[in-house]
Structures are given as C-alpha cells and as structure tokens.
C-alpha cells in the first residue's frame, strides 16, 4: 500500500518534470527540471530495492553530469535564445502525434506482458543485496568494468583534445 | 507494485524524451532529452532486475551510466567547439555534412 502511494507520487513528479524538460523555452530551466526528474527516479530505485543505483544516480547523474550541463549552458546560453527560430513548427505536432500513437500501441503490449523468465525460473540470485551486487560486478562483469575505465580515459582525452583552444592559423 | 506499472512509467518517460529529441532546436536541449531517454531505459532495467530477483540489471544500469557520462562529456565538448566555430547552437545550422 505504502509502495503504491510512493510509486504514484514519485512517478508523477518524474513524469511532470520530464514534460517540463521538453516544454521549457530556456535551456537552463530544462536542466533544472531534469535534475528533479533524475532525483524522483532515484527515489523509484529505492522502492525497487536498488540503493546502490539510487546513490549513483544522485551522485553521478544529478551531481556530476548535470553540473557539466549547467557549466556549458552558462558558457553559451546568453546568445542562444535569440538565434533559435522555429523554422519547422509543424514538426512539433507531427512528433506529438507520433508519440501518442506509440503510446496507444505500447500500453496494451506492456499490459499483456508475460515474462519468459518468471521469477521462479531464474537461478537463485541471493537477493539484490549490495554485497551480492559487488561480487557479481567484480567477478562475472570484471571485463566490462575494466572496459568502462578505458572508455572514461578515452572520453577524457577526447574532451581535452576537442575543447582545447586551437592555435591561430595564418 | 507490478512490473507493468514501472514499464509503463518508463515508456512514458522515454516517449517524452523522444518527442523532445525531435522537436527541440537547441543542441543542449537535445542532449537533455537524450539523458531523459537513457534514464527511462535504466528504470526498466532496475524494474526487471527486481522482478527477476537478480542483480544483472543493476550492473547494466551502472554501465549505462558510465557510457552516459562519457557521452555527455564528449557531446558537450563538441557543443563548445561548434559554438566557438559557428557561433550557433541550432542543430539545423550544423548541416555542412548534408546529412
């Protein structure tokens, strides 16, 4: 009962914040709405027994990534509003209509969803405790985990090379 | 709470993000909508992980977050370079590849 109330509360906040991300005219307000949406989704992760993912969501997503976004918005935003003119207004209505159609197709599909791997068929996993998560991450998924560190290194080098001020060419 | 509730919420978030991805003109707004879609997919991953009583879904969410962080960093660097060279953030103005 309590879980239902919290699901609808945080789900509703997440959905409204997501709509606000799309509806806002100014990019900065979109970014703030996205922070709200990410935090509500983190609350939903708590409901789903995933405290580690919820913490990472707050720290990495709502913290680090959104700070990056806000920095870039502050670097470039004052000029952006004037330069954005809506050339293709009709596209907006096409997109919203397509979204509604996709919604009407997908909802019956999801409602009639019957999992191939029902909870009983799956191998016993020992719950979703943090210890089990860490053990799986550092044994079964060790190679992907190391690959992500390589990916991050590549991203850091790429960003430095890209954003570095190019020397003046004659 | 049933699995389908979380899936429908995840789908709604994804659709809102997809619609925004199409209608937005500012490249940073497009990035924000991209993050929204990734987030919706993460929600369904965690919902499935709980439903199946396994942790593999949560590990996938962890990996998706890492990729999202790298993607955001590189994308925003490209945005800054685009703004510096073209003095625009409109995605319709970055069309020199004629894609």
Structural features, described:
Chain A is an all-alpha fold and 170 residues long. Chain A is built from 6 helices and no strands. Chain A has helices at 2-23, 27-47, 51-83, 89-111, 130-139, 142-163. The longest helix of chain A has 33 residues, at 51-83. The termini of chain A are far apart. Chain B has 99 residues and is an all-alpha fold. Chain B is built from 3 helices and no strands. The longest helix of chain B has 31 residues, at 56-86. Chain B is elongated. The relative contact order of chain B is 0.13. Chains A and B meet through helix 1, helix 2, helix 3, helix 4 and helix 5 of A and helix 1, helix 2 and helix 3 of B.
Topology of this structure?
The complex is a heterodimer of chains A (170) and B (99).
Chain A: H1 2-23, H2 27-47, H3 51-83, H4 89-111, H5 130-139, H6 142-163
Helix pairs in contact in A: 1-2, 2-3
Chain B: H1 3-23, H2 27-52, H3 56-86
Summarize the structure.
With 170 residues, chain A is mainly alpha-helical. Helices cover 77% and strands 0% of the residues of chain A.
Oligomerization category of the chains in this entry: heterodimer
The residue fraction in helices of chain B comes out at over 70%
- What is the overall silhouette of chain B? elongated
Structural class of the helices, strands and pairings of chain A?
mainly alpha
Total helical segments of chain B: 3
Q: Give me the count of strands of chain B.
A: 0
Helix content of chain A: over 70%
Total of DSSP H or I helical runs spanning 4+ residues of chain A: 6
Name the helix and strand elements of chain B from N-terminus to C-terminus, one letter apiece: HHH
Per the principal axes of the C-alpha atoms, what is the gross shape of chain A? Answer: extended
Q: What's the pLDDT, averaged over the residues of chain A?
A: 82
Give the low-pLDDT segments of chain A. Answer: none
Order of helices and strands of chain A: HHHHHH
């Amino acid at each position: 009962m309590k879980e239902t109330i919290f699901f609808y509360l945080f789900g509703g906040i997440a959905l409204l914040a997501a709509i606000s991300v799309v509806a806002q005219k100014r990019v900065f307000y979109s970014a703030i709405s996205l922070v709200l949406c990410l935090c509500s989704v983190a609350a939903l992760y708590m409901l789903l027994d995933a405290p580690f993912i919820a913490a990472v969501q707050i720290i990495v997503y709502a913290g680090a990534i959104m700070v990056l976004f806000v920095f870039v918005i502050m670097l470039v935003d004052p000029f952006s509003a004037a330069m954005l003119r809506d050339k293709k207004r009709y596209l907006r209505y096409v997109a919203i209509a397509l979204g509604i159609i996709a919604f009407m197709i997908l909802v019956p599909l999801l409602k009639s969803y019957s999992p191939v791997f029902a909870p009983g068929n799956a191998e016993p996993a020992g719950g979703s405790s943090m210890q089990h998560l860490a053990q799986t991450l550092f044994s079964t998924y060790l190679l992907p985990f190391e690959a992500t560190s390589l990916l991050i290194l590549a991203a850091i080098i790429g960003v430095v090379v890209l954003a570095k001020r190019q020397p003046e060419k004659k | 709470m049933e699995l389908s509730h979380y899936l429908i919420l995840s789908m709604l978030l994804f659709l809102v993000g997809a619609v925004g991805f199409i209608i937005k003109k500012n490249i940073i707004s497009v990035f924000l909508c991209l993050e929204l879609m990734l987030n919706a997919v993460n929600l369904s991953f965690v919902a499935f992980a709980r439903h199946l009583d396994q942790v593999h879904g949560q590990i996938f969410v962890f990996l998706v977050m890492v990729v999202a962080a790298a993607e955001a960093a590189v994308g925003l660097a490209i945005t800054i370079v685009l703004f510096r060279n073209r003095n625009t953030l409109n995605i319709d103005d970055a069309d020199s590849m004629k894609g």
